[in-house]
Each structure stands twice: as C-alpha cells, then as structure tokens.
Design goal:
Shape: globular
Number of strands: 11
Number of helices: 6
Strand order of the largest sheet: 3-4-5-11-10-7
Strand content: 25-35%
CATH architecture: Beta Barrel
Structural class: alpha+beta
Order of helices and strands: EEHEEEHEEEEEHHEHH
C-alpha cells in the first residue's frame, strides 16, 4: 500500500463537462492521505482506477481524489453494452451546479454498472476502492493502453504537485474559510 503526503487547503475543480468550476473545501490530510491499493492501476488524467480481474475484464472506479471533491448528488452511467474509447465519457456525475463527465481510463465495452451507486453516490465517496466501484469493462485495447496506466507509487508521485498546488489556492474573495455546501441541507 502506498500513502501520499498532502497538505490541507482549498481547491477549485474545473470539470470536463460544463463550464462552472466547483468550489470545494477539502482537508487533503483526511481525504487524500489515504492508502492507495497497490493491486490496481491508475489513469492519472482521468483520476480513475482499474483493477484487472481473472476473467479478462476490469473493474473501474473513481479515486479518492475525485471522492474528495464531494457534493456529488447523482451518477448517470452509459448503458451496459455501450462501447467506449479511452478518455471518452462513460457517464456523468451531477453536483448542485454542474455535470462532471466520467472519462474511460481504457477502451472497452461496458458489461456491468454498479447499480448500488447509480441512485446513491455515497459509496463512491465513502469507499471508492471497494463498494463504490462504478463499472466492469471488457477491454478492447488493453495491451496497447496498459502503459498509459500508473502503479500506485507512480500515481502518488503524479498527484503530489497537483495536490500542493490546490493546497496553496485560497478561497474566492468574499467567501470565508468555513464556507461549505451540503446538497442535502443547503448552506
């Protein structure tokens, strides 16, 4: 298991779909000072993990980095049977303000969607490497795309400068440091 070392801070995520950045306060020590499972490969640009399974298929989910953004309210996957190319949309996660496209870490056909997270995204935030998995894929080009995936140690090294940059960002002027939004309770 690999543990990164991050600092607390503010950040602003620019989603791949939609134009409104999501303002979030996160404590990176809690949200990202996690143990990244070493049995998975990581698609750094997509912030997704890939677990190779014995039957030749792969299980795919979002990393803690995605889960740390919080405020996700709904997950809408593409249907089973859909063929997706690497870095193309597999579905959408919704927040109160925008849609965030979930991009495929590898090319393949969706063979299963985790129905437990379709109506309730809490497992993605609570346990992204376990019960919060999102898809099972039948890879179509794994041999060629596997070199684009990182092991846990390489992913942590890739994340560190990104996390440090987010930690140094300050809230938008006019918002105090305790500003949080709970989509279920409002401000």
């Amino acid at each position: 298991m690999v543990r990164p070392d991050f600092k607390s801070g503010w950040g602003c995520q620019q989603p791949r779909v939609g134009s409104t950045p999501i303002l979030f306060r996160h404590d990176m020590d809690d949200a990202l000072n996690v143990t990244f499972p070493t049995d998975r490969l990581y698609a750094a640009e997509q912030d997704m993990w890939v677990l190779l399974e014995g039957d030749g298929r792969v299980r795919v989910g979002a990393t803690h980095w995605v889960a740390a953004h919080g405020q996700f309210m709904y997950f809408s996957p593409r249907p089973v049977g859909t063929t997706v190319e690497r870095d193309r949309s597999m579905g959408v996660m919704e927040t109160a303000k925008t849609l965030v496209s979930i991009h495929a870490p590898i090319s393949g056909r969706i063979v299963e969607v985790n129905e437990a997270v379709v109506g309730d995204v809490a497992p993605i935030e609570r346990d992204p490497y376990g019960e919060g998995w999102m898809f099972r894929l039948e890879p179509s080009n794994l041999e060629a795309e596997r070199p684009l995936l990182l092991d846990a140690g390489s992913y942590v090294r890739w994340l560190e400068p990104r996390a440090q940059e987010k930690a140094q960002q300050r809230p938008i002027e006019g918002f105090d440091t305790d500003f949080t939004i709970d989509p279920n309770r409002g401000y």
